[in-house]
Sequence to fold (420 residues):
Amino acid sequence: MTAQNGHRPFDVGAIRRDFPILKREVASGARLVYLDNAATSQKPVQVIAEITRYYRDHNANIHRGVHTLSMEASELYDGVREKVRAFINAPRESEVVFTRNTTESINLVAYGWGRKFLAAGDEVVISEIEHHSNIVPWQVLRDERGIVLKYIPMLPDGTLDLEYARQVIGPRTKLLAITAMSNALGTIVPLHELIPLAKAHGAVVLVDGAQSVPHMAVDVQALGADFLAFSSHKMLGPTGVGVLWGRQELLAAMDPFMSGGDMILTVTMESATWNEVPYKFEAGTPNIAGVIAFGAAIDYLQSLGMERVRAHELELVDYGLRRLGDVPGVTIYGPPDAADRGGVISFSVEDVHPHDVGQVLDSHGVAVRAGHHCAQPVMAALNVPATVRASFYIYNTPAEIDVLAGAIEEANRYFGVLSA
Ligand code: C6P
Fold:
């Protein structure tokens, strides 16, 4: 294990050695520069090894068998609940529900809580900078139940209109469902201002932590939220594992989302009773290997320290804003101040379609996302069809940002922008 403890400096070189994929070359022969971390992060050897170890030494179904392997697998799987609890400072381990991803976690709230506790005329407030995963489930509920969906608008700099938020969050608000950080622009949402507004009206608060939990210290008790959704795959862990944290009373009152094995206490030919929280929400055989390896991802991040992860990304984004800001033809979207954003830089290159920029970057080994980033309302607000998005994580370096900037300059030359 080469991950570092909290007392040593943030040694990116040592971190990089834990990520074998960073040594590979892409099709063009260039060394990979992976700047698509908001889509999914790479995995360290510790996580990869944990998956192998589970299948090699412990593979069995959980919560079902009395044999040694099943008990070992159950213990390893449920042990990760405590790691997640500690990571987000949740009061109870039983409040940690394993899902497939953030999308499923939000849907669990929409189906299990929304369909039970929201009625026609009740207002759900979201924002214009949400990922589709935190828009569409509420639109479906609106169409089904007649709830009223309201949006906090985005200002031109990618931040939210807090004055409007103060007006739109009111006595009819039953739920504020809000991202902690925009995946499309990197905007860090001032939850410390928004959550008290919702709480003053007795509303429930769901935080989409898909982009915050992997990149900064998140403390659900300090946040004062009721639900927090996030994905393992964006924080060094495997795909197919997500978390819904929810306050015990709310989870206990909610209906199950899926039904079947493992989520019941008793079943007769006529009816069934539900298992206790969190098992009530984990129907069927889960991604056992994935959850166990997610535990190794959390250990890795804990060993670095989330404050240091955030500080590292802040340095990168600060450098990136200045470096890309100097490249002719580049327009950067989102908050101008690095401190107001996570490690994300969304940009466009004058007269070059974002997909073409993405292709030229790929030929230099630089992996970015080009498109609408599953946040089409953000694109509409910016009046652009798409952007190019570079997103950073623990293993990225300023030198990689230089490669990115050089490759954009190359795209400029290739498409004739500089000579025009
Ligand atoms: N954003 C991106 O490239 P899933 O796919 O369920 O793990 O996460 C959904 C999701 C929800 N909220 C936010 C803020 C997100 O960023 C994402 C995933 C990826 O930006 C894939 S679209």
